[in-house]
Specification:
By secondary structure, this protein is of the alpha/beta class. Helix content is 38%, strand content 18%. The chain contains 8 helices and 10 strands. This is 5-oxoprolinase subunit A.
Length: 252
């Protein structure tokens, strides 16, 4: 692989509550999944994140989620497909306004947290997300888990589906992410994470938590900005990939 995208969840502070170090993360990544106010982020935080992303030459993506500020978007909401589609479309539109004011634009969409994991196999919610993105603009790619139902639906609808891998999350042998409710779901060993992502980019495989190898063809790697040591880990992954001859470049 000549190059790969590195993305990170950003803009997740809210009022006096601070989350992550977006400016530092921007030194390592090529794409920014900007919170849209439903799981995290307030208008001023989102606007500043967009300004910082534009200044750093980072691609802006809409990080849409369930309407769940209290749970940080990590809880499933049993909403109707119409309500979910409306919520997703609303979030993309809100971010687009702030991105335009900063001199940028929304270039892709990535679901967040529980929504991301739910649409791996939830028929109605997967279709609702795809419908919302297509309603906004068929030129917006959707960043999703490889093998997910949403990825197949996006491609069937004429959208570009982009498969991603998670640097700092543990995988089950079937390619799904280990639930955050389980011990060891989040990885903190930068050397281990870097080696796994270099293997992904050069060999197309990721090591699952049981030691088995998962074949994948991800175009992007997610580095969460809200975990301890996130900035150092992002820098380590980027350095490791570049040392292996893999360039860092946005997928759009």
């Amino acid at each position: 692989m000549a190059s790969i995208d590195l993305n990170s969840d950003v803009g997740e502070s809210f009022g006096n509550w601070s989350m992550g170090d977006d400016a530092a993360i921007f030194r390592s990544v090529s794409s920014a999944n900007v919170a849209c106010g439903f799981h995290a982020g307030d208008p001023s935080t989102i606007a500043q994140t967009c300004r910082d992303a534009v200044a750093a030459g980072i691609v802006i993506g809409a990080h849409v989620g369930y309407r769940d500020l209290a749970g940080f978007g990590r809880r499933f909401l049993d909403c109707s497909p119409t309500e979910l589609a409306d919520d997703v479309l609303y979030q993309i539109g809100g971010l687009e306004a702030l991105a335009r004011a900063a001199g940028g634009k929304v270039r892709y969409v990535k679901p967040h947290g529980a929504l991301y994991n739910t649409i791996v196999n939830h028929e109605a919610h997967a279709q609702a997300v795809v419908d919302a993105v297509k309603a906004f603009g068929a030129d917006l790619p959707l960043l999703l888990l490889p093998g997910s139902l949403a990825l197949a639906k996006a491609e069937a609808a004429g959208l570009r589906g982009v498969a991603e891998a998670f640097a700092d999350r543990a995988y089950n042998p079937d390619g799904t992410l280990v639930s955050r409710r389980e011990a060891g779901a989040v990885l903190h060993d930068a050397a281990q994470v870097t080696a796994n992502m270099v293997r992904l980019a050069t060999e197309g495989t990721i090591v699952a938590r049981d030691g088995s190898l998962i074949e994948t063809s991800a175009e992007s790697i997610c580095l969460h900005g809200d975990t301890a040591g996130a900035v150092a880990m992002a820098a380590s992954v980027r350095a490791g990939l570049e040392a292996a001859g893999v360039g860092i470049k946005g997928f759009v």
